[in-house]
Amino acid sequence: MVPDQRIHERPAASADWLRAARAARTLSLVTLAWLGVESALGLAAGLAAHSVALIGWGLAALVEAAASLIVVWRFTGTRTLSPHAERTARRAVAVSFWLLAPYLILHVAHDLDAGHRATPSVLGIVVTAVSLVSMPALGLAKRRLGARLASAATSGEGTQNLMCAAMAAGVLAGLYLNTLGWWWVDPAVAVLLAAVAVREGRRAWIGHTCCH
To answer: What is the reported pLDDT for 19?
Structure first.
């Protein structure tokens, strides 16, 4: 059974479904507050350190914020029970994934051509470390809610939070390994994440809601 059918056949007359919808909206609002700070600090630290992955991670926070806004929109007012709203939301989340991928590739090409190399940044390390700790919990909770709600939009937002944590781990590893001469780790992480963004965008577009 496809997600839209599940929403139509099991309308949110279920108290449990409604609670899950409110929880999804609340988590998205909480995420928005943090992502505003994360994006600003991540971009500032990335530009200072000439780190492709750190800049990409800061921009990814803006993409995540867009996904959070979409989920808030999805579960507000009459849209909460609307299969059409879910379809629109999941496709908007898919597009948000696809917006990130080309930027990462183009920025890698630019920095390699210019000879930029990432350098350690105290600010970047602190911000990414916080996200490495907090984002997995948010992402897993949203993916579980997405499965309960048959909402690929919610699951997609959760996946973006997990990607944020993976990017944070990659950025931290890249900054450290660059001090050992392994400068290629930073752009390699960015390229890998671009591929993941394309894949996850496709999954969101078709309505994949698996919580695993």
So the answer is: 93
Cα–Cα distances in angstroms (integers) from residue 79 to residues 8, 33, 88, 153, in the given order: 12, 23, 10, 13
Contact 51, 174 (CB under 8 A): yes
Enter the tokens of residue 199: 């894949």
The more confident residue out of 1 and 204 is 204
Cβ pair 128, 42 in contact under 8 A: yes
Cα–Cα–Cα angle for 142, 205, 77, nearest 5°?
55
Q: Are 142 and 210 in contact (CB under 8 A)?
A: no
**pLDDT tens readout for residues 146-163:** 999 999 999 989 988 988
The predicted structure's pLDDT at residue 1: 42
Gyration radius of the chain over CA positions: 18
| Contact present, 205 and 2 (Cβ < 8 Å) | no
**How many angstroms separate the CA atoms of 120 and 176, rounded?**
7
> How far is it, in rounded angstroms, from Cα 124 to Cα 173?
12
What is the model's pLDDT at position 210?
A: 54
Q: Is the separation of the CB atoms in 153 and 92 below 8 Å? A: yes
pTM of the predicted structure, to 2 decimals: 0.77
